[in-house]
Specification:
The chain is mainly α and 263 residues long. The chain is built from 11 helices and 4 strands, in the order H-H-H-E-H-H-H-H-H-E-H-E-E-H-H.
């Protein structure tokens, strides 16, 4: 049994192995020691410090563009991302080598974060403008009269009586709401790379009874993510545009490498 475990671990390339270990350690830390973090003044959850907040939030730190990809919202989230990292990342690290693989992984993860920030900026623009107008007018009624989607985020009772200080606090709470965690953006970058470099490799996907070529799987998965991102179904908290961002930055990087004949 020990020989099998040793053989299995030694078969995992070093960068993939270390990435999985870091993600697992941080997930365990977020589960086992949340109360110890309150002294840092950033809430009681590790994800509140390392997760990525909206760039206009007082909780945002540029380092979160990297740290967010090592945090996860639950064991299921962690498991599927790490399984995909093991399956696709191992092949790509052996192909590219550890340095180039790690560079690609981080670039696609940061790229996913940038696209998610851009999406937030577009999505929240009307609400932030309405809040600013209401603050300037010192009147919550201005907010109620706006065409923004503020009702999706706050209960509207008594808002008409809000003055500027209350509206400023409301804006602060609103800016602190969005947060993203997870390696999914980088994992989607790996998926894109695998489909690009091994287009005819057949994959067996859960709930699909027949194998599907990697190029078709990546294409249709990307279409689904785009549809889900645009549709914005109620209750859907998945960062679909971050996933697409990982694929986009992955495609740009691979095209650049191919142009420079780096592989």
């Amino acid at each position: 049994m020990n020989n099998y475990r040793s053989s299995f671990l030694s078969s995992i390339p070093p960068v993939v192995k270390n990435l999985i270990a870091i993600n697992l350690i941080l997930w365990l830390a977020s589960v086992l020691t949340p109360g110890l973090l309150s002294r840092f003044g950033a809430g009681t959850e590790l994800s509140d410090i390392l997760g990525m907040h909206y760039w206009a939030s007082s909780k945002f730190n540029p380092a979160q563009l990297i740290t967010y990809m090592f945090m996860h919202g639950g064991f299921e989230h962690l498991f599927f991302n790490m399984f995909a990292l093991y399956m696709f990342g191992g092949i790509l690290e052996r192909l590219w080598g550890p340095k180039r693989f790690l560079f690609y992984y981080l670039v696609t993860g940061v790229g996913a974060a940038i696209i998610q920030q851009a999406f937030w900026s577009i999505e929240y623009h009307s609400v932030i403008k309405a809040l600013d107008d209401a603050i300037s007018a010192n009147s919550g009624q201005v907010l109620l009269n706006s065409s923004s989607s503020i009702g999706q985020y706050f209960r509207l009772e008594n808002i008409s009586s809000f003055d500027a200080p209350a509206l400023i606090e409301m804006k602060r709470l609103f800016l602190n709401m969005p947060i993203t965690v997870g390696a999914s953006g980088a994992v989607f970058g790996l998926l894109l790379a695998f489909g690009w470099l091994f287009p005819n490799q057949e994959l067996y996907v859960m709930f699909i009874p027949i194998p599907i070529k990697a190029k078709y799987f990546v294409f249709f998965y990307g279409i689904i993510e785009l549809f889900m991102g645009v549709a914005q179904f109620s209750g859907d908290s998945i960062a679909h545009f971050a996933h697409l961002g990982g694929m986009l930055f992955g495609a740009i990087l691979i095209m650049y490498w191919k142009k420079k004949r780096l592989f």
